[in-house]
Design a protein that fits this description.
The structure holds three protein chains of three kinds. Chain A is 37% helix and 28% strand. By secondary structure, chain A is of the alpha/beta class. In chain A, strand 9, helix 7 and strand 10 form a beta-alpha-beta unit. In chain A, helix 6 (148-162) packs parallel to helix 7 (178-190). Chain B has helices spanning 11-23, 33-49, 64-67, 91-94, 128-131, 137-143, 153-161, 394-401, 407-418, 420-424, 429-449, and strands at residues 101-106, 109-110, 123-127, 166-170, 180-185, 193-202, 207-215, 223-232, 237-245, 251-260, 265-272, 277-286, 292-301, 306-315, 321-330, 335-344, 352-361, 367-376, 382-390. Chain B has two domains: 77-392, no CATH class; 393-450, no CATH class. Chain B has eleven helices and 19 strands. In chain B, helix 9 (407-418) packs across helix 11. Chains in contact: A-B, B-C. At the B-C interface, strand 18 and strand 19 of B face strand 22 and strand 23 of C.
Chain lengths: 252, 450, 490
């Protein structure tokens, strides 16, 4: 599904990622954990194609293709989905219009037919019910006036509608209370599929109680410092990141 | 009617005065002393000032004298057949699905066979040209008022040349069943000058909505000079929607003179997408207290279009609310201008005056000039204005593209969203949809019009 | 609460008479013949023993001035000025060869500055509070009478002297920079200034030097029927920093007096200039009789990359203020700032603001303007922010707030915002309001009198700008805010 090889990334000359290697197979859920500033969010932006980053070295292969060669919207149409840590508010663009435009644009890029309005509405109703989202919310502008929980649920709704093959969840648990976390995690789990991979980026272990990962990686100073099974998350929960924060030996 | 031509006039100015000499005898109402007098004084006033130029503070950014090098002859009233509905989206076609009373003016002349303005309950409609020899007092009184064109050369020209137009009186307490649409259509391949003058009187407690649309051929350098005088009486409610979608070689000059009485409500929105050069000038005055008025608009310009909105809202009496809200989207080499002024006179305590102008620049060669002014002579007031200019927010674009929406489509969505706020305040759903149809398609239209 | 009490104390301590700097110093003066012509200009130039190129430059300016007309676009009104009915040069007679050292300065002059609270004696300053040392150039009518701390500054290579002295001692520096920010025919008053200016301050900060103390010029108009035309030039060479303060007062006279200064600032690469003004010229009486016409051209040129110029002004005096301290943001990544408090009372007329011209890439500007009008005064903010075609990523934020005290005054906001570059981001906000009855009631309920309450609230309203002033000036300015508004309520 996804293969990252020796990825080096800089922002304005400042190295952020210093040689990441990661392989994600179809159906796997990988958790990436790490202290603040370790480069977790940068990785999610690089995968989704945000500019402002200089990739100085390395490759990313997605479904056999060079991901770095694809534009943001091409990646999305090819199934790469980023659930944002801070979903942006866009005044004036109605959420419903946005969902329909996105879905049909992706279908068009893939050479599929546009979904008719009744079919689309049916699909949205189904998915919103699962995520406990009020229809009224979708008449508002994207994320404008949404609570923190609503914003995250709206991200998961988009994920459910667009049915991506690679889901990247960037700190999806941040700012959520336990009930909201439960709803969001259930939404994510419903999407687990042998053909779909997920990268769950999180600072805390608590999300991983709900979304059980196959593998856990610790990101520190722009490198994967350690990889293991789900038990590694519990170990971090107990010991904290101190070990990784102090480990500056290889920073240069 | 001999008018002396001063040697300092430019070619265009001279030809205006010449045209007047040639056609004044044929202008409607000619031979009646009061009309002759009004027209002669207006052309003299124009002759003294000439066309406005950039040394005049209110024309600082639109040098009309420099722009209007030639002045085409006044349009003739021909009865040529006209195809009103176009294949693409234009202002006229966009409103065709709105249930409305329609009055069509072709090259500035009323065309009854295309219109449906007869027998609207609660409205008196006077077509100026048909009735110039016997205008009712309420129309005559307003057309005589020379005060309105003092210091306004464009309005003076309009007064001198006005060949037709509509005068509407919404009777006391009447609520008009559906919007009245005045459609101004230009046809033909010959450049011409079109001067229309309209008057709307909304009597006490009446309610009405009027749509004005302006369309014309894309490659003819015609000049439209139009004026509307609007008087809204006490407790009346009036909505006006204007869409300026003139051909891209045209010049569109418009004046709006508004007078609002106590407890009246007025909502005005202008969407400007057409013309090479356009100027929408408005003056709003109050004759009573507790008025609520919104003057809003969106301009979407590209190519070498230049669009100027110049507005002055004068609070002369206490306790009224005024709002100005304008959005401008500029692509290619387009240039947008907003000059807005809120004046609060010493007696106008408890005024609430707000003004906002925002511009979105899509191209490195686009230019926005804004001059939002506050002039305050009373202390117990709340006045504020804001102005912003900038390009598309990269984060918005990234979010949309990250969901698979291609760049152009994402931009189109964001551009439409940028101008959405003032349109969302239009009460009538049909009209709102027609406006959105125009703004939503603007970004895509650029390829077909480039 | 402590801060509140402090402010109230300060306001209370203010003298009842509204303009305490209105006295006249009796000192023998030497003047040029009344009126303006080429001979008067030659007289001034000769008096200053100027090089030939200076005289030519002045005459050029004078000839251009003759072809120009007074600007009429500002929202100010005054009877025509008879430029032939003014003296263009007035200097204390004792000042034959210009100021040398403090001991040689006429004691009468020293007493004048003492009365104004301006420290000219270095020892006294040294003995003063917490090392608050300020070097002062004192300008009396047309000439600089003394400049303090010159020796100490010279150790760092800082040049701080009168313009006359600079022309003698550092002619190349002056010639290189003078008139490069405000060209001869920039405007009517700057052309007049170029023709007749008699003195002013000159500052040069060498590369990499952080000026060890605040520099300050204190302007005093004393003579009747005399115009004051000073010229200030400040150059901050690469990587240097200077903070400069300017203060102004004049006696109370029934006739209007003209003050037409030109200030030019040049910031080279990585340099920063902070220029603060507390302008308290005589504003005229409550009926509008007398007062200074303050027609000033101030402009800073961020000439090279990463430079910064910051203007802070507290304008409380003058019958008419016509003043737009501006920044030309020519160097890439340069920054311009304008912080202003303009208070008008009585019949004062203020038309002031700034221009931020973005020419270089990634340039940033910030404008915070607080206008307070009281009495029958008129107070206008006029500003221009423009981004030129090549000024990619220009950023501006403007906040203009007006406060009206009483229903006979007026406040206007006239911004010109010109974006010729799509990557420019400009934001402008303005509000106009009055002191709310609730705010007044709250203060009164706590036993604060009307005038103190107004001073308190207005100081709060201006806080953002007052914070920009150097400490010593901030306290002074805060008091001034209170005095300027006396008699505005009740």
């Amino acid at each position: 599904m996804l293969e990252i090889k020796d990825l080096h990334v800089e922002v304005e000359g400042e190295p952020i990622l210093r040689g990441i290697n990661l392989e994600v197979s179809p159906g796997e859920v990988h958790a990436i954990m790490g202290p603040n500033g370790s480069g977790k969010s940068t990785l999610s932006y690089i995968l989704s194609g945000k500019e402002d980053y200089d990739i100085t070295q390395g490759t990313i292969t997605y479904k056999g293709k060079d991901l770095l060669d694809m534009a943001v919207d091409e990646r999305a149409a090819a199934g790469v989905f980023l659930a944002f840590q801070y979903p942006i508010e866009i005044p004036g663009v109605a959420a419903m219009t946005f969902l329909k435009t996105a879905l049909n644009a992706q279908r068009a890029t893939r050479g599929e037919e546009e979904l008719s309005t009744p079919d689309f509405m049916k699909l949205v109703r189904e998915k919103t019910k699962e995520l406990n989202i009020r229809q009224e919310m979708l008449r508002r502008s994207i994320n404008v006036g949404f609570s923190g929980g609503e914003k995250k649920r709206f991200e998961i709704l988009q994920m459910a509608l667009l049915e991506p093959s690679l889901c990247i969840l960037d700190e999806t648990d941040s700012g959520l209370d336990i009930d909201a976390l439960q709803i969001v995690a259930e939404g994510v789990n419903r999407l687990r599929d042998p053909k779909r991979s997920m990268i769950v980026i999180t600072h805390y272990q608590r999300l991983l109680n709900h979304i059980i990962p196959d593998k856990v990686h610790v990101l520190s100073h722009g490198k994967i410092a350690r990889s293991g099974g789900k038990e590694l998350a519990l170990e971090l929960e107990q010991n904290g990141y101190a070990e990784y924060e102090n480990n500056t030996a290889d920073a240069a | 009617m001999n008018v002396q031509i001063s040697s300092t006039l430019t070619a265009a100015e001279k030809s205006l005065v010449d045209h007047f000499d040639k056609i004044s005898a044929d202008l409607p109402g000619s031979g009646q002393a009061w009309i002759d007098d009004v027209r002669t004084r207006a052309i003299q006033s124009f002759e003294n000032s000439g066309l406005p130029h950039r040394r005049l503070e209110s024309w600082k950014y639109t040098d009309l004298r420099g722009i209007l090098r030639e002045m085409p002859a006044p349009a003739q009233n021909s009865q040529a057949p006209v195809l009103l509905e176009q294949d693409g989206v234009d202002a006229h076609t966009a409103f065709s699905s709105v249930d409305r009373h329609l009055g069509v003016f072709v090259n500035g002349f009323y065309r009854p066979e295309l219109s449906s303005l007869e027998d609207i309950e609660g409205v008196e409609i006077i077509k100026l040209r048909e009735n110039f020899d016997d205008l009712p007092d309420w129309v005559q009184e307003k057309l005589c008022n020379s005060k309105v064109y003092e210091n306004n050369a464009i309005l003076a020209l309009n007064t001198a040349f006005a060949a037709d137009g509509a005068a509407l009186r919404i009777n006391r307490g009447s609520k008009i069943d559906k919007p009245i649409h005045l459609a101004f259509v230009v046809t033909g391949k010959e450049a011409c000058a079109i001067n229309t003058r309209n008057l709307i009187i909304v009597e006490e407690g009446a309610e009405a909505t009027v749509i004005e649309t302006y369309v014309g051929p894309p490659d003819v350098a015609y000049v439209v000079n139009t004026a509307l005088e609007l008087c809204v009486a006490e407790d009346a409610v009036f909505n006006r929607i204007k869409v300026q979608d003139e051909g891209h070689d045209a010049v569109h000059l418009a004046n709006l003179i508004v007078s609002l009485a106590g407890n009246s409500k007025c909502h005005d929105l202008t969407l400007s997408v057409g013309a090479r050069t356009s100027r929408n000038e408005g003056q709003v005055d109050f004759t009573g207290e507790n008025v609520e008025v919104t003057i809003s608009g969106a301009s979407m310009l590209r190519g070498k279009q230049q669009g100027d909105t110049t507005l002055c809202v004068t609070h002369g009496l206490p306790s009224s609310n005024s709002r100005q809200e304008f959005k401008t989207v500029l692509d290619d080499h387009a240039r947008g201008i907003f000059q807005g002024c809120v004046i609060v006179k010493p007696d106008a305590q408890h005024t609430d005056g707000r003004q906002m102008t925002q511009a979105l620049l899509l191209s490195p060669d686009a230019e926005m000039d804004a001059k939002p002014e506050l002039e305050i002579y009373a202390d117990d007031v709340e006045c504020a204005h804001g102005a912003t200019a900038g390009d598309l927010d990269e984060d918005y674009l990234f979010y949309l593209r990250a969901r698979g929406i291609p760049e152009d489509q994402a931009k189109a969505l964001l551009v439409a969203a940028f101008v959405a706020a003032p349109i969302e305040e239009v009460q009538d759903e049909g009209i709102r949809e027609a406006l959105f149809q125009l703004t939503n398609s603007w970004f895509d239209r650029r390829n077909s019009e480039a | 609460m402590v801060a509140v009490r402090e402010t109230v104390e300060q306001v209370k301590s203010i003298d009842v008479d509204q303009y305490k700097y209105g006295f006249v110093t009796d000192i023998e003066m030497e003047r040029a013949p009344k009126g303006l012509n080429e001979d008067v200009i030659r007289f001034i130039s000769a008096k200053k023993e100027e090089p030939e190129w200076m005289l030519e430059w002045r005459l050029d300016a004078y000839r251009r001035w003759l072809t120009m007309t007074e600007p009429s676009w500002a929202k100010v009104g005054y009877p025509p000025i008879d430029f032939q009915d003014l003296y263009y040069y007035a200097a204390p007679k004792s000042d034959k060869d210009g100021p040398k050292s403090l001991d040689e300065v006429d004691p009468e002059l020293l007493r004048t500055y003492e009365k104004l609270g301006i420290p000219l004696k270095e020892q006294e300053v040294l003995a003063g509070v917490q090392g608050a040392r300020i070097a002062v150039d004192a300008i009396f009518d047309s000439v600089s009478v003394v400049t303090t701390f010159k020796a100490e500054l010279a150790k760092e290579g800082v040049i701080f002297c009168s313009m006359s002295e600079a022309l003698k001692e550092h002619p190349d520096l002056v010639r290189k920079y003078l008139g490069t920010v405000v060209p001869i025919s920039d405007n009517y008053y700057s052309a007049l200034n170029t023709a007749v200016f008699s003195d002013g301050s000159f500052v040069y900060i060498p590369p990499g030097v952080r000026c060890p103390m605040e520099l300050s010029t204190y302007f005093r108009i004393n003579e009747a029927n005399t115009g004051q035309f000073e010229r200030t030039l400040i150059i901050a060479d690469k990587g240097s920093y200077v903070s400069y303060l300017e203060g102004c007062t004049a006696p109370m006279r029934d006739e209007n007096q003209l003050h037409a200064a030109v200030v030019e600032l040049v910031a080279l690469e990585d340099a920063e200039i902070k220029y603060s003004t507390v302008q308290n010229w005589y504003p005229g009486d409550a009926e509008g009789k007398g007062g200074i016409y303050n027609f000033v051209t101030k402009r800073g040129d961020c000439r090279e990359a990463n430079s910064k110029i910051s203007w802070t002004q507290v304008e409380t005096g003058s019958a008419i203020t016509w003043k737009y301290p501006s920044c030309i943001l020519r160097g890439d990544n340069s920054t311009g700032e304008f912080y202003s408090i303009a208070i008008s009372n009585g019949r004062q007329q203020v038309d002031s603001g700034t221009k931020m011209l973005h020419l270089g890439k990634n340039t940033t500007s910030r404008i915070i303007s607080k206008g307070i009008s009281a009495g029958k005064s008129s107070n206008t903010y006029r500003g221009q922010v423009s981004a030129h075609r090549k000024a990619s990523n220009a950023r501006n934020f403007t906040q203009c707030d007006s406060l009206l005290i009483g229903d006979k005054c007026s406040a206007h906001t006239i911004p010109y915002i010109e974006a010729k570059n799509s990557s420019a981001v400009f934001e402008h906000e303005a509000t106009t309001s009055k002191i709310s009855d609730d705010q007044m009631f709250y203060c009164q309920q706590r036993g604060i009198g009307d005038e103190e309450a107004v001073a308190l609230i207005v100081n709060g309203f201006c806080k953002e700008v007052l914070q920009q002033l150097p400490m010593e000036f901030a306290v002074e300015a805060q008091k001034l805010v209170g005095i300027s508004l006396e008699g505005s309520v009740g």
